[in-house]
Design brief:
- The protein has one domain: Beta Barrel (AOC barrel-like), CATH 2.40.350.
- The chain contains two helices and eleven strands.
- Strands 1, 2, 3, 8, 9 and 10 form a six-stranded antiparallel β-sheet that branches. Strands 4-5-6-7-11 form a five-stranded antiparallel β-sheet, with no helix packed on it.
- Strand 2 and strand 3 form a beta hairpin.
Length: 197
């Protein structure tokens, strides 16, 4: 009798929950189903690095204490996709901040599965990019996932200016050094691409 009651209770609970489950929205990750996604991913494929910006600030509050940061920002355009990857990073690893040892993750519109990472070395100017995206425009049932790797040596035109407070007293800024580089836009052809359907 007890197992019959438990079974009835279980069935009643399931019956009560089924309409809620059916009404709940199913969250699916967006694939890149835009027409031409797969065709644009092959052939003479190139990304565009848009407005690559490096700048840094070295602020000394005393001759021996500093608060210094470097920043990288750029957009990555993939001709197969209808949106850009927005890439940015900040670092306080002195004194060039970026050494090509730390991968940073770029952002894409919410819900898309594209993954983009980069690393940058300020001393050498080397930028590495890795991107994975999925095209489902030719066969939604069997989409193609593409992974591409690219590298480029950036030549940045930068200004480096330092201001020193001649009348410094405790509590004031002792010195302020600012490095600003002109934004760079250029194409980047991957050195390796793989595709899995």
């Amino acid at each position: 009798i007890r197992s019959t009651i438990n079974m009835r209770s279980f069935i009643s609970t399931i019956t009560a929950l089924l309409p809620l489950v059916a009404a709940a929205p199913v969250e699916l990750n967006n694939r890149d189903s835009n027409p031409g996604c797969q065709d644009a991913s092959f052939g003479d494929f190139k990304w565009t690095i848009e407005n690559f910006d490096y700048h840094a600030s070295y602020i000394f509050t005393t001759p021996a204490h500093q608060n210094s940061w470097g920043y990288v920002n750029f957009n990555l355009t993939n001709p197969a996709l209808e949106y850009q990857a927005i890439c940015s990073a900040s670092s306080n690893q002195l004194s060039d901040f970026f050494y090509g040892t730390m991968p940073y993750t770029c952002t894409v519109p919410e819900g898309y599965t594209t993954k983009t990472t980069f690393d940058f070395s300020r001393p050498s100017g080397k930028l590495n990019v890795n991107q994975t995206w999925t095209c489902s425009d030719t066969d939604p049932q069997y989409p193609t996932t593409i992974n591409a790797y690219g590298t480029v040596n950036l030549t940045l035109a930068c200004t480096d200016e330092t201001w020193i407070n001649p009348n410094w007293t405790m509590g004031q800024i002792y010195s302020d050094r600012t490095v600003k580089c002109e934004p760079v836009t250029l194409p980047l052809k991957p050195y390796e691409m793989t595709a899995v359907a």
